[in-house]
Write a structure and sequence with these properties.
With 127 residues, the protein is mainly α. It is built from 3 helices and no strands.
Length: 127
């Protein structure tokens, strides 16, 4: 998965992950503590972003807090995705809903026989 660097994209990614977890809660029984930790962290991150937006004087400190919160949240999202993958299996196509690429069989490319070059014309003889 490519690195998401903007705040809006990160929050959108986390929100869609949590929505997918909520939708599939019946098939993911052991995931509750990861989901609740992610939801709590998402709220804290939103509060920090609101604080960052509300004042200019403390913007640098809020920005540092926000970067730390985003880093911690990314780690929590990795753990949550890992728990989802462990619960429903690494080959299950439902993993796409959680932003995880399932393991798929490799496609074999047909091996092509090298073309034989056409026979060279006989050398010209000067007479």
């Amino acid at each position: 998965m490519p690195q998401i660097s903007s705040y809006a994209d990160t929050i959108r990614d986390w929100d869609s992950l949590l929505t997918a977890v909520r939708t599939n809660s019946e098939s993911l029984p052991d995931i509750e503590r990861h989901r609740s930790a992610m939801e709590l962290h998402m709220e804290v991150t939103r509060e920090i972003k609101a604080r960052q937006d509300s004042f200019l004087a403390g913007r640098q400190g809020a920005t540092q807090d926000l970067k730390a919160a985003l880093t911690n949240g990314r780690e929590l999202a990795i753990r949550l995705r890992g728990a989802v993958k462990a619960n429903i299996g690494p080959r299950n196509e439902r993993l796409v809903q959680f932003g995880i690429a399932p393991l798929r069989p490799r496609r074999r490319t047909p091996t092509e026989k090298p073309e034989t070059p056409p026979p060279a014309p006989p050398p010209a003889t000067d007479k």
